[in-house]
Amino acid sequence: MNETVSVMPNPSTSQPSASDQPYLLRNLPDILPEGKAFPRRAQQQIDLLLLALEALELGGSELMLASAKRLELDSIVTNRVAFWRLRCSNPWRRSHTHQDLTPTQAKALVLIVGDRAKQLTALLRQLLLAEQQVRSRQLPFDNHFRLSEYLERFRAHFKSRMNNRRVRVMLYNQSKQDLNELALDLLQKLLFCTGTVGAQRLWVSLFDGEVS
Fold first, then answer.
1. Which residues of 10-19 are buried (b: 16+ CB within 10 A; e: fewer)?
2. Cα 73 to Cα 26, 29, 179, distances in angstroms
3. Which residues contact 176 (CB under 8 A, 6 or more apart)?
4. What is the pLDDT of residues 159-174, one digit of tens each?
5. Which residues on neighbouring strands pair with residue 34, listed in sequence order?
6. How far apart are CA 162 and CA 3, in angstroms?
7. Distance between CA atoms of 5 and 119, rounded to whole angstroms?
8. C-alpha–C-alpha distance, residues 36 and 128, integer Å
């Protein structure tokens, strides 16, 4: 069943003015003016990166909320429900809200992605090295336990949360190989987010379609 959730703005969770925003939020350039719809492809990409982070570590959602608090983004990502609603801007979601992210909300999610990716840099490098080794030996990914575990968790998350009525989602769900390749591509994009300006690189790349 296609679950469509209509979410009305909550006046009690209004966003801070630009001058009151945390430095890290202001440090991302205003490529889109506030009030203009954030690109749907970018909304989808952010949520998929968050999905990959969830597949990398147990309790991933709680760790992302902890990142939001540490980065002083809790005026935007106020709690677990608010975080879920922001992620449901992804048009592939079963519970797609049909409500676009504002640039400020998108910036907050990008900062969370960058923060968690930094914490997982060593694991990301380990898994991408394992991918290269497995491919070079022409072995199945199941031959590497940690890589196989990540791929299995990602596939499970994707299938349970994405709307199979979307043609691209349906095609992914029909092909384990394609879904694995998507998960591995997201690892590369997460590694791109590490480093001192990782969040800035990700943010800018969302507008030109390149995160590689």
1. eeeeeeeeee
2. 12, 17, 32
3. 155
4. 999 999 999 999 999 9
5. none
6. 10
7. 33
8. 36
> Distance between CA 95 and CA 12 in Å, rounded?
23
Alpha helices in the chain (DSSP H): 23-26, 40-56, 60-70, 80-87, 103-119, 121-136, 145-161, 167-174, 176-192, 198-205
Q: How many CA atoms lie within 13 A of 128 on its CB side?
A: 14
Asked if residue 76 lies in contact with residue 95, where contact means CB atoms within 8 angstroms, the answer is: no
> Which residues in 109-145 are b (16+ Cβ under 10 Å) and which e?
bbbbbbbbbbbbeebbeebbebbeebeeeeeebeebe
Query: For 157-187, b where at least 16 C-beta lie within 10 A, e where not — what string?
Result: bbeebbbeebeebeebbeeeeebbebbbebb
For the chain, the helix, strand and coil percentages under 3-state DSSP, each to the nearest 5: 60, 0, 35
Answer whether 188's CB lies under 8 Å from 132's CB. Answer: no
Q: Rounded to 5 degrees, what are φ and ψ at 162?
A: -100, 150
Q: What is the pLDDT of residues 25-39, one digit of tens each?
A: 888 888 876 556 788
Contact indicator for 52, 187 with CB cutoff of 8 Å = yes
Tallying the residues shown for the chain, one arrives at: 212
